[in-house]
Amino acid sequence: MTESDLRSQISAKEDGITKIEEEAAKKDASAENEVDVEYDSKIADVKSSLDSEQSKLDEATEKAAEWAAKKNELRATVKALSKEFKMLNKEKGNALKTKFKQIETDKKSQIKPLRTEIKVLQKQLNALEKAARQE
């Protein structure tokens, strides 16, 4: 192999790494969009319900005497919705984190062999350059 061939191979391998990194970035964005699509509407619905129920709870508190039973009922609803809201946000974060970890693992497993090949090619190139200098 000539120096030119080795340089071309190294360049091609580095281009491969760049392509994998770009694909991983696209997958990151896609994963975030997937998780957003899956959870945002649920979270918005729960948040809307939570806001509505919280408002009703505030009104019931002002009229405590005549609204005592309603107040307790709404408090339970708000508590359940708050818990569901927090749970959905946590699940969304965990789902996104899991997808990012998988994308990173895939990226590393694709890049590692290319880096190994680059090192071998660089050693060959260095040997050729050393031989050329000795001549």
Tell me about this structure.
Helix content is 97%, strand content 0%. It has helices at 3-62, 64-134. The longest helix has 71 residues, at 64-134. It is rod-shaped and about 105 Å long.
The main β sheet shows up as:
none
Average pLDDT metric = 90
Euclidean distance between termini CA atoms: 17 Å
Number of strand segments: 0
Query: Which oligomeric state applies?
Result: single chain
Task: Give the helix proportion (percent range).
Answer: over 70%
The backbone outline, from C-alpha atoms, is rod-shaped
β-sheet strand percentage:
under 5%
Tally of helical segments: 2
Compressed to H and E, one letter per element, the order equals HH
Based on CA atoms alone, the radius of gyration comes out at 29 Å
Sheet/helix structural class: mainly alpha
Uncertain stretches of 5 or more adjacent residues: none
What is the strand and helix layout of this fold?
Blueprint: H1 3-62, H2 64-134
Helix pairs in contact: 1-2
Condensed summary:
By secondary structure, this protein is an all-alpha fold. The protein is built from 2 helices and no strands.
